[in-house]
Amino acid sequence: MKQEDLIQLVTLKMPYGKYQGRLIADLPGHYLHWFAREGFPPGELGRLLYLMREIDHNGLSSLLTPLRAHATQSHD
Questions:
Q1: CB-based burial of residue 3 (10 Å sphere; 0-12 exposed, 13-18 middle, 19+ buried)?
Q2: Are 48 and 57 in contact (CB under 8 A)?
Q3: What distance lies between CA 53 and its chain's CA centroid?
Q4: What superkingdom heads the lineage (predicted)?
């Protein structure tokens, strides 16, 4: 895992499905767990969803808070 991966979690939006347009970091835990049961999509998106599921499952979502602030400032 690289810092860039974490930044992507707070900047990349889900491209399809029920939560299309929502940031990966803001996807609900039950949705991430569904992917864990059913299988993550291939490629970069699947890798990031897996990472977010691990962060959520281990109660580490607060680690993304400073990155959210940085990402917001970078886009201003």
A1: exposed
A2: no
A3: 8
A4: Bacteria
Using DSSP, state whether 52 is helix, strand or coil: helix
φ, ψ of residue 23 in degrees (nearest 5):
-60, 145
| Count of other CB atoms within 10 angstroms of residue 69 | 11
| Tokens 């993304």, located at residue | 64
DSSP labels for 2-24?
-HHHHHHHTTPBP-SSTTTTSBG
All structural domains of the chain with their residue ranges: 3-75
Query: pLDDT per residue over 17-65, tens digit each?
Result: 999 999 999 999 999 999 999 999 999 999 999 999 999 999 988 888 8
